[in-house]
């Protein structure tokens, strides 16, 4: 719900009141400019928390961009933007910061989407072999396999692909595979000689189904 959080920095007890007001006013103006740009922005002007505490607070909430603005930044007409996805800090000129922050959010979106897509593709496997099915499952993949579509068969798949190894580390995923979806676009047609992925099933597979383990 918040895309950018603005955190004023460098406010100390010895700071002149006029300098303090000037800094907060600049933060508020930046907040207004970004909202006018259509961004969801929040300025954190609470004076009972340190900037470091605020950084952690908003990072835990998942805010993509944190803007840090202090007295030195004000004099140099700049600000510092921190990306949550990479931790990278960028120094931006104040006069162009509004557009640059909007562009930065788009870049973060593309970067995270590309990474998620790469992870999805690299962890999606296809097999017709039950032993390989279980092996791929243990390697944290999701698996496309021929499936008859029968509920009782799915229950057997879930039961027989579960791990009950006593040597598993505590908290390690051990549940069996369950069906996630039947893709609208099938990777390939079911062939006459294909069998349902569960070795004990004698029913003809109807479609490729995506299976995965719950975590």
Describe it for me?
- The mean pLDDT is 93.
- The two termini are 26 Å apart.
- The strands form 2 sheets. A 5-stranded mixed beta sheet has the order 2-1-3-4-5, sandwiched between helices. Strands 6-7-9-8 form a 4-stranded mixed beta sheet.
- It is of the alpha/beta class and 215 residues long.
- Helices cover 38% and strands 21% of the residues.
- Keywords: Protein biosynthesis.
- Its EC number is 6.1.1.15.
- It holds the Pfam family HGTP_anticodon.
Q: Beta-strand percentage?
A: 15-25%
SSE order in H/E notation?
Answer: EHEHEHEEHEHEHEE
* Order of strands across the main sheet: 2-1-3-4-5
Count of extended strands: 9
Distance between the termini: 26 Å
H/I helix tally: 6
Largest sheet: 5 strands, mixed
Described by the principal axes of the CA atoms, the overall outline is: elongated
């Amino acid at each position: 719900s918040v895309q950018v959080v603005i955190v004023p920095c460098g406010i100390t007890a010895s700071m002149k009141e006029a300098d303090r007001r000037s800094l907060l006013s600049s933060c508020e103006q930046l907040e207004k400019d970004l909202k006018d740009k259509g961004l969801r922005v929040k300025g954190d002007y609470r004076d009972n928390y340190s900037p470091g505490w605020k950084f952690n607070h908003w990072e835990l909430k998942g805010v993509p961009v944190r803007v840090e603005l202090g007295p030195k930044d004000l004099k140099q007409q700049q600000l510092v933007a921190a990306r949550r996805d990479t931790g990278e800090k960028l120094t931006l000129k104040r006069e162009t910061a509004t557009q640059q922050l909007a562009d930065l959010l788009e870049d973060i979106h593309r970067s995270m989407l590309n990474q998620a897509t790469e992870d999805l593709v690299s962890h999606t496997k296809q097999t017709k072999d039950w032993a390989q099915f279980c092996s791929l499952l243990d390697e944290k993949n999701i698996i496309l396999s021929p499936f008859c579509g029968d509920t009782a068969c799915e229950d057997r798949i879930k039961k027989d692909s579960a791990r009950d190894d006593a040597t598993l580390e505590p908290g390690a995923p051990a549940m069996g595979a369950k069906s996630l979806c039947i893709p609208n676009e099938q990777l390939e047609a079911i062939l006459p000689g294909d069998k349902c992925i569960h070795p004990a099933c004698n029913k003809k597979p109807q479609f490729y189904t995506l299976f995965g383990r719950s975590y």
